[in-house]
Amino acid sequence: MVPQNLYPKPSSPFSDMDLLVQKYGGTSVGTAERLDNVAKIVAQTREQGHKVAVVLSAMSSQVKAEGTTTRLMEAAKAAIEGGPYYKIIDQIAERHNETLEQAIKDRTLQERTKADVGSMFKKLKSFLDAIGVIEEISPRSMDVVVGMGEKLSARIFTGVLNDRGIDAVFCNLENLVDEPFTEVNLEFCQYLQGKLAQILAEAGAQVPVFTGYFGFAPGGILKSIGRGYTDFTAALIAAGAKATELQIWKEVDGIYSSDPRKVPKAKVLSAITPEEALELTYYGSEVIHPFTMEQVTRAGIPVRIKNTFSPDLPGTFIDPKYVPDPGNGKATAVTVKRNVTILNVNSNRMLMAYGFMNRVFEVLGRYEIVIDLIATSEVNISMTIDSVSNLAPAIKELERLGTVSVKKGMAILSLVGQGMRNRIGVSGEMFTKLANAGVNIELISQGASEINISCAISDDQSDKALRAVHEMLE
């Protein structure tokens, strides 16, 4: 374990100023107009006397399939299969060049940015050429391809800020990790925090514009962290530099009490606790990446969720010091995690209870199958999993232990709230609401967290289940 003082926060000309780390999602920077809008937010934040560090996702549109990250993954697949990957890359390049031409007015800055962007695409094509030759791609190589999206958006936005008179510096993190690590653990995170704090200090009075991609992660950044790794990078910067606040700028007004597309009466939550945020992000809310909350919660740094397109709205404040009214007794939010599978294993009674469970978990661990909810008895284990990629070979081994059944098309419904700790009968009320709405419960899990009651239901009933349980919050 790395000692806490191994990576001290370096001093800088702005060490006595509040540091705000602002992370902008792909939709927020998807066009020239949106880049200009983000530049205005950064300028206003500086005018208010704050030091600002910016982290960007790859450019995207309202449709995820059309985003840069998705297109880059398509190009990698095409390279392996001998498909038209040059055509895909040229389309991505055309969009980025059009955007920077519209967003950067100064001709010198525009040409300099365009040259850097062109160099990036040239290197990417050469990299994909090599992938095409060997006809396979490692997790690390896929990370390099996907990480190009954040490099492009960060370089272009640096030019946008310079064009508006803001002294900004492009901080490419693709070679940040220069020591061997075997897993994404506390030691790895503390190492990254120290390195990022040093880069921030070296930026001095400049606005550092960081790529969300930070290079090599054990097992591959997409596999170990997931596509929300840019939020994770921002959290590492905030934790390493002891920021005053981490701001996540997206296209939503904040964290809602439920999905407003499914529940008309859902409302924006003005403040929630980090514990509530962790539960909500893990069980279906897509506003923040779970790893992000772990980093800032450990460092005691508050998070604010803001809408890039409505910057004057207050958003949602996730405050480590926030204490909900203990007399309220209400839950905070209800969320759903879709596309879940229930796996049931019934013992053939040839093993004692402890031996049966141990063998089941050994098999699941070997195939890297992650369990969300679990209910057990002496001869049965029922659990939910959100990925079936390695399920088939795992089932073959589990069938040696007993009867195995699989039920797909399920969802996890979770009621979350600190106030539930002090109220009797919450679970009873929740299950009554579901029963009255005609929702059948397949599995119940309560006890691992005092602030979360979860159950597995059929995915096609999840919308009406959300509306029924949300009545408890109204």
UniProtKB/TrEMBL annotation:
| Sites where the protein binds substrate | E150
Report the EC number(s), separated by commas if there are several: 2.7.2.4
Tell me, what is one Gene Ontology molecular-function annotation carried by this entry?
aspartate kinase activity
An individual GO BP term: homoserine biosynthetic process
Gene Ontology terms: cellular component: cytosol
Annotated keywords = Amino-acid biosynthesis, ATP-binding, Kinase, Nucleotide-binding, Transferase
User: Which residues bind ATP per the record?
Assistant: Y256, R261
The record places domain ACT at 415-474
Pathway(s) the chain acts in? Amino-acid biosynthesis; L-lysine biosynthesis via DAP pathway; (S)-tetrahydrodipicolinate from L-aspartate: step 1/4; Amino-acid biosynthesis; L-threonine biosynthesis; L-threonine from L-aspartate: step 1/5; Amino-acid biosynthesis; L-methionine biosynthesis via de novo pathway; L-homoserine from L-aspartate: step 1/3
Q: What are the transmembrane regions?
A: none
Q: Which domain of life is it from?
A: Bacteria
Question: Which Pfam families does the record associate with it?
Answer: AA_kinase, ACT_9
The reaction(s) catalysed by this protein are:
L-aspartate + ATP = 4-phospho-L-aspartate + ADP
List the PANTHER family hit by this protein, alphabetically: ASPARTATE KINASE, ASPARTOKINASE
Q: Which NCBIfam families match?
A: asp_kinases
Similarity comment text for this entry: Belongs to the aspartokinase family.
Protein's recorded name: Aspartokinase
